[in-house]
Specification:
The complex is a heterotrimer of chains A (about 500), B (about 350) and C (about 300). With about 500 residues, chain A is an alpha/beta fold. Chain A contains 16 helices and 23 strands. Chain A folds into three domains: about 230 residues, Rossmann fold (3-Layer(aba) Sandwich); about 150 residues, P-loop containing nucleotide triphosphate hydrolases (Rossmann fold), CATH 3.40.50.300; about 90 residues, Rossmann fold (3-Layer(aba) Sandwich). Chain C is mainly α and about 300 residues long. Chain C has a single domain, classed as ABC transporter involved in vitamin B12 uptake, BtuC. The chains are: A alpha/beta (about 500), B mainly alpha (about 350), C mainly alpha (about 300). At the A-C interface, helix 2 and helix 3 of A face helix 6, helix 7 and helix 13 of C.
Chain lengths: ~500, ~350, ~300
């Protein structure tokens, strides 16, 4: 009785720089968990935005329950019975849970009705919520719960989940999977978007694999293995990266000791007693679910925030906790924060101008405050060549580069200064597989030459691949560190969920 | 089949040609609108536009008058560019201009019977300091108390105008001035030397050109200019780069205030020669339009100041020959800025007619 | 001040404060949707002159207010077109709206300076101002439409993802703001003054903008702020009228006792209040609509 709920017929969507979907066709069966698998940039998000009425396709159509789906907005989609949980939650941070729920319902609803419905849903799927709490005060898992409840209030036939586990701990993932299975048992269908192979095998019945905007395969998951799916998802396999411990020197290059910092702003996580040290040539990883103090720690490591409550940051015997970013660069410390546009690069400026954002002592970009423009341009061209940045030239604006190319440019700019310490956050966030590989390789090469590297990342696989030692940050506290090659994945998961036994 | 309505497509890189073209488009659209407005008012549109934009500059005197008006506009607008590039909205240049006139003019009044070469330079320095001091107030309030500079700088315009009012009615009033509230005239050495005999254009024009050139150099060639730009586009990137944004705010306000102060002093020691209530026909506000129309680029600002100065002269002539209120000048100024901001859209986005499904 | 004088004083405060309340509450609604319109002063001027000229020509108060509101809708519609459709910079566009409004109003009103009219009694409008503040508060916190408007100001991307039309909601909020500002202007030219004079709004539009910051975007506090402002400005006029002089041992007593100083006191008071409110950076951050001044672009 494999009746299909959704049929995609030759969906094509073009953007100025890229064809996001090229003649995409496949079916989704009723009462199944259907995985949409692909790398970042494979076209998954675009496809579901079309399905949910957020984007118009250029060509093709979608059948829903054997009828042509004709929608122009998400509220049309919801009326038809399609609901979506976004990867970056579509919640209103300063409003309460109740207000957020009401906003997701198209009909007018009284408070008592809402409360009744909510109680039903909460008990049925084990999704407890505090109606009066503002969203800001919730953890990522709780926020996702609000999103799911908001959609269940509409009683949808199809639930789209966009990378739902990217912000969850392994334990929260288990709970989510239970909820999703319960929903399918009731006859609902789930479209599950992911790039994680294990999740497809454990949770999903069917899988459609996309690469570069095209469907590679659409099949049942029964006879698939993680390996076979990976081959389809990635195309030709890239070489495995090798982590080498032999070059690490015992000299301690960087030491953070008992850093504490509290914030009045409820959007920030307080840091509690963070200590760690990094040796010469070592790559040290900090894992953790987003929102556990990574960006606050990064601000302190860069020097954008020099007002810690207590603690010391020592680089080669110098106390640097009160140094601003420029003073730290003068000591040959380089930084790559998580956000490219508007943080490590200014989108409105050219690549040459963006070179000037981080000046190191040996750069000679300026003389008594007057710019040495030729020198800056040569440097930009060198970075573009050495790091294979795809761009028309050094006078292109940063905004015109793809995410991967801009990240290569920014990392290239920092690495070209031959730093003694590199602090980098989410090095491969939101970029394509090719760029990801080359960035990881360049970090490993840099460490081999004696540079210490601190990597903050949500992507545990990435940290396991490139770091020598790692620790986990949870709610502003850092765990003790482990040798990466000896790490126990279960323990790592527990630490990320705040369970330290 | 193509859709009737074009769709808006974001350009990956803003268009440089459009960046230059847009102000020209805005001016043309303003002229067309002006022609329509004049026709609706029952005038021959060509005649009216001729009165407004051609006849005021058909004589050496007219061109000199154009430059007299364009000088303060250009100088203040270049100062504003320091603020606007840094994404600080100092809209109180009128107040800074007034304070410059008070400080510099005060020196001129104190030395009203002194004739010496050092008097004018001293007054200019006084004007710069007066404007800069007044501009430091919103800068300080923004840095120390996080107070919105748009509102404070604007409130300070009213305060400055009332201080001038107090001075010319009260302590600085010319004892021989009969009932009209004005101060003593400055001595001859406290006046801006004229460039040509019989024309009002004065040495302030040269001072302005020098300051505009220096500003161009700072914007294009120095780390400081780069810092202003970065912290305007993205304060977070500026913090990452390690720029001290509070100091940038002080400096930008200070330069802007000083330039406006010099412009104010140049007005009172140039064409006017003493202090009274209405020393500026809203130069400080109009310069905001000049700065935007000139794209915050010193060269662009020079062109823009000439065009906007023409709306002042045109409005005067229109009042004289067509009995249209001179305020029509402000109408044109507002219109040109509207069109500019609207057409700016073409720099960042393009319209695409694409096939429908 | 005796009892009767005090009642008189209160009456004048009520009458003088009402226009700032109208403009302030209008701008508050606009800002709550995530749009900053700095054109308040210009819209008030155009509203004032439209009402005045309509009244002189037609003799109808109703038409005067109606046309004035149309003028406000026209002015704010222009602004909305630029900032919503053409995604222009809100600060610059608002400023140009004010400059445009100054020019337009003095052009329209040139012939009517000094024309006498019969002023309207202000009391209905004073009551109306309280009523509107109450209604806006009710709308924001007790209705779903109000919740949607606040949500759009908090996060336009989330609101869009849920299927709300960000642009439509912002357009309505801007038009409401514009009509309230024009209405405030017409109150000034028809009830408060009653006359037309160039630039007669005299910075009240800017004070209304400051009020919104003072209120930390809460409707009821618009009233509090407006009456603090109205109270000080009438109080200084009262002192001036009584010929109040500072004693000579006060430094610069001549200056402080002069009319210009009294006249600048409302602006100084506004600045001081702004400084006090804004110095709590966190409070401003948490209460300001998170999307204020951010343009919304629907594309990918």
């Amino acid at each position: 009785m494999n009746e299909s709920l959704i049929e995609f017929n030759n969906i094509t969507k073009k953007f100025p720089r890229v064809i996001a979907n090229n003649k995409v066709s496949f079916n989704i069966n009723k009462s199944s968990v259907h995985a949409l698998l692909g790398e970042n940039g494979a076209g998954k998000s675009t496809l579901v935005k079309v399905l949910y009425g957020l984007l118009d396709s250029d060509e093709g159509h979608i059948n829903f329950n054997n009828e042509i789906l004709n929608i122009t907005s998400p509220s049309d989609a919801r009326k038809k019975g399609i609901g979506m949980v976004f990867q970056h939650f579509s919640l209103f941070e300063s409003l309460t849970v109740r207000d957020n729920l009401i906003l997701g319902i198209d009909e007018n609803i009284s408070y008592s009705e809402l409360r009744q419905q909510l109680e039903d849903i909460s008990s049925k799927y084990n999704l407890p919520l505090d109606l009066e709490a503002p969203i800001t005060s919730l953890s990522a898992g709780e926020k996702q719960r609000v999103e799911i409840v908001r959609i269940l209030l509409q009683d949808p036939q199809l639930l789209i989940m966009d990378e739902p586990t990217s912000v969850l701990t392994p334990q929260e993932v288990q709970t989510l999977f239970k909820t999703l299975n319960a929903l399918v048992k009731e006859g609902r269908t789930i479209l599950y978007i992911t790039h994680k192979l294990e999740e497809v095998i454990t949770l999903c019945n069917e899988v459609t694999i996309m690469r570069n905007g095209e469907v590679i395969d659409s099949c049942s998951t029964e006879n698939q293995t993680a390996k076979s799916l990976a081959t389809k998802m990635l195309g030709e396999r890239l070489d495995e990266l090798q982590t080498d411990y032999t070059h690490i020197n015992d000299f301690i290059n960087f030491k953070a000791s008992k850093i504490s910092c509290s914030f009045a702003d409820p959007f920030f996580t307080d840091l509690k007693n963070i200590s760690f040290e990094v040796k010469e040539g070592e790559i040290f990883g900090i894992a953790g679910v987003a929102g556990n103090g990574q960006s606050e720690l990064m601000d302190i490591l860069i020097g954008e925030n020099c007002t810690i409550d207590s603690g010391e940051i020592i680089f080669k015997k110098t106390n640097i906790e009160s140094f601003n970013p420029q003073k730290r660069r003068d000591l040959s410390i380089a930084f790559v924060p998580e956000n490219r546009l508007g943080h490590s690069a200014v989108p409105e400026l050219t690549l040459s101008e963006n070179i000037l954002l981080s000046q190191f002592p040996n750069n000679n970009f300026s003389n008594h405050g007057i710019l040495n423009n030729n020198f800056i341009e040569d440097y930009a061209k060198e970075v573009i060549n050495n790091f294979n940045v795809v761009t028309p030239g050094s006078d292109a604006k940063a905004s015109s580069l793809s995410g991967g190319n801009l990240q290569k440019f920014v990392i290239g700019r920092e690495i070209s200064s031959n730093p003694k310490l590199l602090i980098i956050s989410h090095p491969t966030w939101g970029i394509d597989a090719g760029a990801e590989y080359s960035i990881r390789q360049s970090l490993i090469n840099l460490a081999k030459n004696g540079t210490s590297i601190i990597v903050l990342s949500q992507d545990v696989d990435e940290l396991i691949e490139i770091t020598h030692r790692m620790a986990v940050i949870y709610d502003g506290s850092l765990s003790e560190s482990f040798i990466t090659k000896e790490i126990d994945i279960t323990k790592l998961g527990l630490l990320m969920g705040g369970k330290n036994d | 089949m193509t859709n009737l309505f074009p769709s808006i497509v974001s350009r990956p890189q803003s268009s440089n040609i459009m960046n230059i073209l847009v102000p020209i488009i805005a001016i043309i659209l303003t002229l067309i609108t002006g022609a329509i407005i004049f026709s609706l008012m029952g005038f021959n549109a060509f005649f009216a536009l001729h009165i407004f934009f051609i006849s005021p500059i058909s004589s050496a005197y007219g061109i000199s008058e154009l430059l007299v008006k364009a000088t303060p506009l250009a100088l203040i607008a270049v100062g504003l560019a320091f603020c606007f590039k840094n994404n600080i909205y100092n809209i109180g240049a009128e107040g800074q201009l007034t304070m410059g006139a008070i400080f510099g003019g005060g020196i001129g009044i104190y030395f009203h019977d002194t004739n010496s070469f050092w008097l004018l330079p001293l007054m200019i320095i006084g004007g710069a300091i007066g404007g800069a001091v007044w501009a430091m107030i919103p800068a300080l309030l923004k840095n120390k108390f996080n107070t919105n500079e748009i509102l404070t700088s604007l409130m300070l315009v009213y305060v400055a105008l009332l201080i001038l009012d107090y001075l010319v009615v009260g302590p600085w009033r010319d004892p021989e001035g009969y009932s009209f509230p004005k101060t003593r005239p400055f001595s001859d050495s406290g006046r801006m030397p004229l460039l040509f005999e019989g024309l009002r254009i004065h040495i302030g024009l040269i001072i302005t050109l020098i300051l505009v050139f220096i500003s161009w150099f700072v914007f294009a060639k120095t780390i400081f200019g780069f810092q202003l730009k970065v912290s305007g586009f993205s304060p977070i990137a500026a913090r990452y780069a390690g720029f001290n944004q509070k100091i940038l705010i002080y400096i930008a306000f200070g330069i802007c205030g000083a330039f406006a102060g010099i412009a104010g002093l140049a007005e009172v020691s140039g064409p006017i020669g003493l202090l009274y209530r209405d020393i500026s026909p809203n130069y400080g506000f109009t310069a905001i339009i000049v700065a935007f129309l000139g794209r915050l680029h010193p060269l662009g600002i020079i062109f823009a100041s000439l065009i906007i100065a023409l709306t002042y002269l045109g409005a005067e002539d229109a009042q004289l020959f067509m009995q249209i209120p001179a305020a029509v000048g402000f109408l044109f100024q507002g219109l040109v800025l509207f069109y500019l901001l609207g057409a700016d859209f073409l720099v960042k986005y393009k319209l695409e007619f694409k096939k429908s499904k | 001040m005796n009892y009767l004088e005090f009642i008189g004083f209160l009456q004048i405060v009520l009458i003088a404060t009402t226009p700032v309340v109208f403009a302030g509450i209008g701008e508050l609604v606009t800002e709550k949707s995530g749009v900053l319109n700095l054109g308040v002063e210009g819209m008030m001027l155009v509203g004032a002159v439209t009402a005045f000229v309509t009244l002189v020509i037609t003799g109808s108060y109703l038409l005067a207010f109606l046309f004035s509101i149309f003028a406000g809708i026209f002015m704010s519609g222009l602004f909305a077109f630029l900032v919503l459709i053409l995604m222009s910079n809100q600060v610059a566009t608002g400023l140009s709206l004010t400059i445009f409004g100054i020019g337009l109003s003095s052009m329209i009103g040139k012939k009517y300076i000094g024309t006498p009219i019969d002023g309207l009694t202000p009391w209905y409008f004073v009551i109306l101002s309280f009523l509107i503040v109450f209604l806006v508060g009710y709308f924001f916190y007790k209705t779903k439409s109000g919740l949607i408007l606040r949500a759009v100001g908090e996060s336009h991307t989330s609101a869009h993802a849920l299927g709300y039309s960000v642009l439509k909601i912002r357009l309505l909020a801007i038009l409401f703001g514009g009509s309230m500002c024009a209405f405030a202007g017409s109150y000034i030219s028809i009830c408060y003054a009653p006359m037309w004079q160039e630039g007669m709004i005299a910075g009240r539009g800017w004070i209304a903008l400051a009020l919104v910051v003072f209120s930390t975007w809460k409707p009821s506090r618009i009233l509090i702020g407006a009456y603090i402002f109205g109270g000080t400005s009438i109080f200084q006029m009262h002192l001036q009228g009584k010929g109040f002089k500072f004693p000579h041992w006060v430094p610069f007593d001549d200056f402080f006792s002069s009319a210009p100083f009294f006249n600048m006191s409302p602006y100084l008071a506004t600045m001081i209040v702004l400084v006090i409110i804004s110095s709590n950076k966190l409070r401003i951050k948490l209460s300001a609509p998170a999307c204020l001044t951010m343009p919304f672009y629907k594309g990918s």
